[in-house]
Every structure is written in structure tokens, then in C-alpha cells.
Amino acid sequence: xxxxxxxxxxxxxxxxxxxxxxxxxxxxxxxxxxSHEREYHSIRAAAALFDVSPLYKYAITGKDAAQLLHHxxxxxxxxxxxxxxxxxxxxxxxxxxxDDGTVARLGERSFRLTAAEPNLRWLQDNAxxxxxSIKDVSESMVALSLQGPASRAILGDIDLKYFRLAESSIxxxxxTISRTGYTGDLGYEIWAPASQAIALWDALIDAGTPHGxxxxxxxxxDVARIEAGLMLIDVDYVPARKALIEGQTSSPFxxxxxxxxxxxxxxxxxxxxxxxxAARDPQWRFVGLEIEWESLxxxxxxxGLAARLPPTxxxxxxxxxxxxxxxxxxTSGGWSPLLKKxxxxxxxxxxxxxxxxxxxxxxxxxxxxxxxxxxVVKKPFFDPERKRA
Amino acid sequence: xxxxxxxxIGGGHNGLVCAAYLARAGRKVLVxxxxxxxxGAAMTEEVFPGFRFSVFSYVVSxxxxxxxxxxxxxxxxxxxxxxxxxITPLENGDYxxxxxxxxxxxxxxxxxxxxxxxxYDEFGLMLHQMARAIKPLLAMAPPNPTSFSFSELxxxxxxxxxxxxxxPGRFHMLHKLLTMSSADFLDEWFETEALKATKSAxxxxxxxxxxxxxxxxxxxxxxxxxxxxxxxxAWGFAKGGNGSVSAAIAAAARAAxxxxxxxxxxxxxxxxxxxxxxxxxxxxDEIRAKRVVSNADPRRTFMQLVGEKHLPDEFVDSIRRFRFxxxxxxxxxxxxxxxxxxxxxxxxxxxxxxxxxxxxxGYLERAYDDAKYGEISRRPYMDIVIPSxxxxxxxxxxxxxxxxxxxxxxxxxxxxxxxxxxxxLGDAVVxxxxxxxxxxxxxxxxxxxxTPADIERIVGLTEGNIFQGELSLxxxxxxxxxxxxxxxxxxxxxxYQCGAGTHPGGGVMGASGRxxxxxxxGTP
Lengths: 389, 524
Hints:
Chain A is of the alpha+beta class. Chain A is about 20% helix and about 35% strand. Chain A folds into three domains: about 5-55 and about 140-215, Gyrase A, domain 2 (2-Layer Sandwich), CATH 3.30.1360.120; about 55-135, Alpha-Beta Plaits, CATH 3.30.70.1400; about 280-390, Elongation Factor Tu (Ef-tu), domain 3.
């Protein structure tokens, strides 16, 4: 049977849509209401509360904890300050991305790594000879993500910088709060022992109700993360561990994560391959695409229809063309209700990655394949000042 | 002029597959089956009133999908129902489950070892890649590496290119798989004993080897092959038992125009000037054909049906050395009620899958130790399915049939097989299983025990080997059954082989039958 998170007693009562999906072996709500629309708007206009407990969480402690993580991930962990959080991918020896997540420095010798996939074995195998203890705390620790402009007020006007964390308490429950999230908005993630889950949920709902807090599901989150230009494992990239052929793997450079790769580090997993790759022109790049509305409208008009788009974000491979050549493929996309734009995330070959490049995206209209004009744009599509302010 | 293009000796599933392909290509085909029903070891019988059993072979996973498609077997009644899980009861009262659902499986493995839960997917991916590396070889008539003929060299070149394309990492892994024992190979991946044991069990099936015997790692892969094709994914159970597999193939062969005669035992292959020209039945009838194909195993084909005097000495020596050493038995139980396992009480999903008595590698190796010195395993390895859970028509309403594959029960038993030894084997099986499911003894209405000696006597498989010869590395690919004669042909013109004793081997795969037909038809 599938697992339910420690919040299930609350979330199941709220989930009037009965729309559930799987996430890392747990069931989580796709949307609580019949449509995800209000949940999406709460992210951008008030505050949305997500149960993100299915994330894999590892507590890494000991004299060599920093060294272990420094060796595994692509970013510089030694230079992280206590209380700092870093988003980072990590790679196999061929420099291909295995997973992505966050490293939080809880203390000099204490870290928490979050991951989308199980990584205990990978961490253990890389810890050979190091004085570091690795504990899988995925089940003993829950996480809630509170995202949106009202999130700071709900947390009592907490003073926390972007990608920093602090020990705190909510209604007497000891928690860690990090200013992180997956929406590209002002937001926080709250980490607590599983035993306190229900009390924590109730406390946040109580504090948030005057501010318009809404429990939100994965459909709303998907729209927000696409607007924020954030990639999703298994959707936007195949982790190297699951790739059946080399062509399915991606390097951090190809995923537009060059900023996370610190080649000055003397040694880390995948370094050699990444140094070699950095010296070459990029083969692929993960970019933002905006589909031109007039072009789309024109294609629909040809068959006597008004333009129509799917009501939720899509996750599939859609060919992108440059003239007669296939320039790449989009992996996620959808209508941005806020920007009033049809946007997508795509992998493009080297020659077509520059912002402004005019391309075409395949679209099926009345059972026929057409091509709509699209152009490469900078990610994120939506980047409010409040995110960092 | 002979009235038949091809006579096929033996209506086992491979003989029938071969017949169907030849008939579809317009050949006039006659299948001669010794017994009153076709199927060989793939047969269903109502052993006790109302209780139907796949008496010998009992699951399907390796039956080639192209055969199912080409012969339109579903139209002829074939329906393979999936087995969803494998449960291994442990001696401490717990169990290890392996489930088809990824999340459920990971969660169950994590209960035993977080590391193994993670390694499992990578192991699966690795086996997938290895199976992909091996799979093209299964469809290929194996080239002779010592020949300099153009076609053989071309075959070797194709083989070399194939191996090169794997890249060093995969090639090295393949080398390990080909040389290591399954226990050693699995030690590199997992730490949970029951997981290693249950996985290694598929490396010893049908061999007189233990999980610590080198070469068994490959057999592991051989049995995984069935999982390659998305639609199959895992082991399945043919609705109506394995006899329905044979019946479907026979129906396809008949529909294509083949004639199948049962109760028609062949005594001898007719040979004239080094050429097979037909057969003589036990009743003395002679039937001529342009070609003769034997579905019997290599020893029976050459030493009995052909006769040494018609064959080159070296060839006879090789056939004599070809190893059978049947090591497995079947216990078929008619049950008044379902077994109630201590580790998972009640009627649960686990009873729809396989139940493996393989708590540790040591347990399996000790079972082998007994057999190595000519004894029945005191506590044998068992692979159990309850077909009536998937196809209720196999038993009267509310009652059940249980199929227990047992290893080791050596063909060469000290003192030989007797009725008393047969029942002693049945007792060892029931006693061992009752330790995990205490209500079992009271639930048994009838019991059938099939020893390797019975398999040989009834089905005609030499030494009761279920694969028509051990599936060990020295008897595979271009060495199966005999070096230089691995392409379904024989030293006698006009005589072919199509049984599991040829490449790629057994497992109700049908590949030998299809490959032989292609060799006869000259299809590359």
C-alpha cells in the first residue's frame, strides 16, 4: 500500500476533489478543491500551504560532514555559513546529473540534504573513510511549504534572508524555517518532527486564515514552478541512475545550472568530465520558451476555433523546430494565469539557445499537427522582487 | 516421393512451434507425438477429479512475444495472467516481499535495508542492459568461432560489433555475469540475505549447481530475459495451465495445415546413405519425409532414435558428455483451503504471486550440499504458485491447487528412485512448507510427487532435466548441444533438432522451435 504523510488526517478531510497522486511512494493531493485555480492564485496573491513531506531528507553530521557534501555536490559547501541553504545538483563520475536538492548547513558539523530520489547508498558509498554519519530522516521529519506574499506575515514577520534558515518555534513546536521553496515567490519551508505534524498544520492554518492561507496541491505548484523556470526530475530531466542510454542523461551545464558548478573545487564527483565539458560549446541548454499568442490564435482560427489551452500544466515531450530541423524538445509547459502567456521549458541544441531566437513548437489542433511560433526567453518567466527582498 | 516435407518427432511446445512456422511457410508437416496428448512437459492434466495441474512446467515468462504474435496464439486460446509478486517467508516469522508496483516494492525492501531498496532499481537497470546485450544473441543462430567460412566470419563480426557497442562498463559487467556465481554476483549489490537468496534461486533452476557455483550468475540473467519485453514484465501463469500454451500452439499449427498425430511413438529415424529419410514408428509403420526434425533431447535423439553407428565418433563422444543431471521435482497439491502463512496470515495478494522458500543463500547452498552427494535436500528450495488464485477453473469452487517446484531432487539418487523415496521427497516438501504455513497438512486433499525419474519416464526428458540438458555455461550458445553442431543441424543430412537442448535453451521459450524452422526454411 502507499504511504500517507503525517498530515493525512488533515489533508484528506480537505481534499474534496479526491484528486490524489503519487510522490515518492506517498499519496499527496493534486488539488484540494475541484479546480486548482484558486490554489494557484493563493501562491501569488496570499499564501499557499503545501505538504512536501515526501521529499527525501538526510541528516549528515560529523567532523567530515562538510567534506562529504563538498565531494558529492557541485557547489562549494566548505564556504557555506551556518544557517545558509544552497540549491545544488549532484552528478555521477561522468558528470551527469543524478538528482537535485538543497544542502542546509545547520551547524559547523551538521547538514541536511533534501533530495527527490533516495540517495542513502550514494552518500554512504562516497563517505568511505570519512568521519560522517548519514541518517535517513525522511520519515521522522515532516515539511510544509508556505509560499506567497503573505507568508512572512503568517510567520510573525520573521526576519530571514533568501536561502537562509533559522531554528524557531511555532505555537511552541520546535521547527526549522528556511526561506526556500519551489514557486519562485516569497516563501518558507518549515521542518519539524513527524510527531508534531498535526499541531503544526493547525497552528499554521490558524495563523494564516486571516491572511487568506489555502492548502494547495501539486497542480498549482506545477504552474508556479514553471513560471519560476524550475526544473522537475523525471519530467524535465532523466536522472543518470535511471537513464537507459547515454542520450537520456544531462549535465548541469545542459540543464542551465552552470552557476551551481564550482570547478575551482579540487575534487568532487564528476569534476573531470565537467571540466572537459566546460571547455566545449554547449551541446544542449534548458531554456524558457514563450509561445506567441497571435500565431497560436491564427492556427486555431484556420479551423474556425478560438485558441484553447489545456487547463493544467502539461508534462510531455513536444518537438521544437528551427525551420526543417528539430532544435530540441519542450518537457513542461502551460498557461500562466498571471502573465497571460503560454510558456514552456525546453531542451534546445547549442545553436538555438540565445534569448530571442525564433523557433516553432508542435501543437495538435483538431487532430492535426501544426507549428506555432515561439521564442527563447530568459528564465524565470516570473521573478517578483519580494522573492529576495 | 515422400508425402511429407517434414516430420517432427515429438509434440512438445518447441516441436509444435517449429511445425506451425513450417506449415505457415507452405510445408507439409507431420508431428508425431508418443503420448496421447501434445505438449511434452508443457501440459495440463486433471490429476485428481476437479483439480487441474500444470504437472511439469508451470509458469511462462520466456515464451517469445514474436511467436505469440506470428502464430496468433491469443486467437487460439492463449492468455497469460501476470504473477504480481514474490514472497519469501523468513525463518524468524517475518517475510520479504517483492512487488510489481515500484513504490510498494521499494517500501517493502526499505523495511529490510534502505541500501538494498536503492540498489534494487540500479540492479534492475543493470540486468535490463545486460539482457539487452544478450537478447540479440538469442534470435541469432550462433556462429561457429572456429570456422573461416564467410558466413561464419560474418556472424562472428556481427557478434564482435555487438559486444563492442556495449562499451567497456557493460562489457565488463557481462563478463562478471558470465563467470561469477550468482551468490557472489548478488553480494556485490545487496545485503539482505533473503533478497540475495531469492534472486540467486533463479540462477540454479534446472541445474545441478548451487548458488555458490561459478557460472550461475548467467542463468540468473537468462531467466530475467522474459522481463525485457514491456508487456510481459514478469512471470505469468497461462490460463488453463501450461497445457493451454501447447494447445494454442497446436491449434495454430493445425490451422496452418500441419498434421499432428498423437499416440504415435517413433522407434527410429530412417537413415539411408547418411541421410534421414523418414521414421519408423513403434508399430512398424514407416513414414517418409524430405526432412526429419527431432524435438527430443540430444541424447534421446542421437543415441536412441538415430543410433551411434550412423554418427561420427567425436560427435557421439560429445553427446555422451552433454550433461543432463536433472535436479528438480514437482509436488502438486490439491487443497481444501488456502495455506495460511504465519508471516502473512489470511487470504492476501501474496497468494496470487510466487512464494519462494529461500530464506538465505546458506539455506540454498545446504540444500545443494545434500544433492551433491546424491541425497534429496532435507530442506529444499521451493518455488510455489497457487494457480487457482489466478484461474479459479483450475480447482473446484472454493478449493485450490498448489504447484511446488522443488530443488534439489537429484536424478542420480543414492540407491535410485523408489516409491518410498518419492514419498519421502513429498514429506520433506510438505514438512518444510508446513513450518511456514502450519495449516497446510490439514488442507491437503491429494498429493502428486513428480521426481526426475518420473519426468524422464513420462515426458521422455533424459535424466529428468527440465531444460533438455543443463543450462550451464559450457552448454550454451555455440556449444549447445555440441560444438560445431549448434545450428539445429546434425551430422546427418536432412536431420534437424528443435528442442530446448539447442540454443537458446529451455523455459517454455519456443525460440529453439522457431529458430529451427528458420534454419530449415533458410531464413537468415
